[in-house]
Amino acid sequence: MNQEKILEVNDLDIKFELRGKTLHAIRGISLDLYKGEILAIVGESGSGKSVFTKSFMGLLERNGYVDGGSAVYSGAEDRENVELTAVKREKDWLKIRGHEIAMIMQDPMTSLSPLKTIGVQIMEAVLLHQKVGHSEAKKRTLKYLMDVGIQDPEKRFDQYPHEFSGGMRQRVVIAIAIACNPQILICDEPTTALDVTIQAQILDLIKELRHKYRLSVILITHDLGVVANIADRVAVMYAGDIVEIGTCEDIFYDARHPYTWALLSSLPQVGVKGTDLFSIPGTPPNLYTEIKGDAFAPRNPQALKIDFVKRPPYFEVSPTHKAKTWLLDPRAPKVDPPPVVSKIRNGGLL
Amino acid sequence: MEREVLLDVRDLDVTFGERRKKYEAVKKVNFKIYKGETFGLVGESGSGKTTIGRAIMRIVPSCGGDILYKGDKINGRISAELDRKVIKEIQMIFQDPQASLNERAKVDYIISEGLMNMEKGLGEKERKKRVDQALLDVGLLPEFASRFPHEFSGGQRQRIGIARSLIMNPDFIIADEPISALDVSVRAQVLNLLGDMKKKRQITYLFIAHDLSVMRFITDRIAVIRKGEIVEMAETEELITHALHPYTRALLSAIPMPDPKHEKEKKLLVYDPSVHDYSWEKASWREIRPEHYVLANRKEAEEYKKLYKD
So where does this one cross the membrane (chain A) (predicted)? Predict the structure, then answer.
C-alpha cells in the first residue's frame, strides 16, 4: 500500500458548550489517512464519528470548538500543508471545503435542492471549483454523470431530483462531490437510506471512482458488512475515541478490543436462530462528565481493575494494528476472544 | 401435521388512485401465516411490502381478494363486533420510533391509549398496574410512565412502541421494519425482545423488512416480494440455501457479510426482469421443492428443478 500521508490528526480534542455544560465529544484522537486508501470509521450513534470528520471541513455547530491537538492536511498540490484546526475564517474554509475535502451525506433527498435541475446543481460545483467556461462546464458535467453511472446524461441533465430514485439521487450527490475535484472524499453513511441491492452498487461506484480520481476516502458507517466490503483500514470508535484500528483483516479476523468483539457478536449475520443475539449491556457513557479509565469498562463484564482507573494507551499488535485496551499489556491475564472472532476467521458464515 | 392457519391472504389487490392514474401496489398476493410462526416479507422499497401490512391492519383499503383472520373475512365491510376483535388482537410496530409516538403525550397515555378505548370499564388502579407490567415486560422501568417520548433513546422508544402493542395482549403482531432505524447494538436488544415475547406468549409475527440477514435470524418462513407480486416463498433456511428465482438470488448476493475475504471475492448478481419470457405462457405459482414455491412458467420450472439436482 502507498504509505504517503494526506491527513495527519494528532491528539485532537473537540468540545461543545451546551447550556453552561461542556460536552467532550472527541477525546484525543490520533489518526493518519494515507493517499488512495479507504478508511472506514465504525461506531454507534453518538460515538462522535460525524463530529470528528466535520471538524476537517469547518462544519462544526457554532457551540463546538477544537480544544487541542492538530489536524494537518498535506494533499494540496499548489499550496503548503494546512493546519485545519487553525483555519478560522469562512473565506479560508471555502478554499478547503469541496475543493480539497468533499463530503457525501446520508440522505440524498436533503442534500439536493428540489428547485434546481440536477445538471445545474452539478455544474455549479464545476464552475466554482474548476476554472472553465460555461460550455466546457456543461461538457464536464455530462462526463461526471456518465462516470457515476447515470445513463442518458443529456436527458437527465434537465431533470429534477424528484424524478430520480434514491440510488440515482445518491449518484448525483457523488457526482457533485467529484466535480469539486477533491483529494479527500468523506462519505457519511452513504448507503444507510438505500436498499441492499442499490447499496452494493453505490459501494462499487465509490471503489471505482477512488481509482479513477485518485481519491482518499473516509467512510463513516455503523454497518460492519459494508466495512468488510469496501474498507482497506478500519477504525473502531467508542465514546469519542478510536479504540482499535487496523487493516480490514486485522479487525474482522483478529480483533483485540472488547468493544470490537461486542460489536461483531451482536450482528444478526453471526447469530444462531432460536438463541438470543449477544447484546451489549448498559448504555454509552455520558460525555458531559470526565471519563476515568477505559470508557467501555462499565459495559464490559470482563473489565480489569485497572480499566476503571487508568486510560489505556495504544498497544501495538502488528505494525498495522493497534488497540487501546489493557488486555494487551504483558501483565494482563489472558482473556480469550469470544467464539465469533474465530467463527468469522474460519468463514463460518452462510 | 396440519398447522392452524391464523391469517390467510387470498388474491389480495391494493390499488391507489383511479382510472388513468391507477397504480397497482399489490397484485394478487397469496400467503398463509400459521399460528405461532414468524413470517417474513422481504422486498426493496416500493415493492408493496408495507402496503400488504397496512392492508391487513385495514389502514389502507383492499380492492380485491380476501384477508381471512382466524377464518373470518376482515377486509371490506365487517360487523362492529369483529371490528373490535380485530383491533384488539392485531397490533402493529412501526419502523421509526421517532415518528410513531405522540410527542405531546406521556408514556403512560401512549401505552394505555388502546386499553382505554377497548376496555371501557377498566379502573384506574388496574390500568396503572397493566402499564407498569407492560413496561417491565419490555425491559423498562415503571417510573418511565410519567415521562415524554423525547426523553428516551431510539432503542427505548422502540420498546415503548412494543409495550403499547403488547398491552392489548395481541395474537398477531405486524412489525414493519422495527429495527431499521436502530443502531447495531440496540438492534440485537430489540430482536431478542421480540423473540422472547414470541416464546412467552405464542405471538405470531408478520415481519416486514428489506434486510435478508436480519430475516434469516428471526423468521421461520419468508416470502420475497417484487413490484407487488410474491416471486418466491419457502422456509427460511431452504430459501437462503436453495434460492430459485433470479430476483431472490440477486437479493442474497447483495447481503453484506462481516467477512472481508468473502466480500472481496463475492460477485454481485443484478436482476434483469427481461430474462423471463412470459409471452407464450404466463407465470404461475409452482411448488418446485417441498414447501418451496416460486413464480414461474413451465419452462422456467424445469430449469429451477435442475438447479439443485446435485
Answer: none
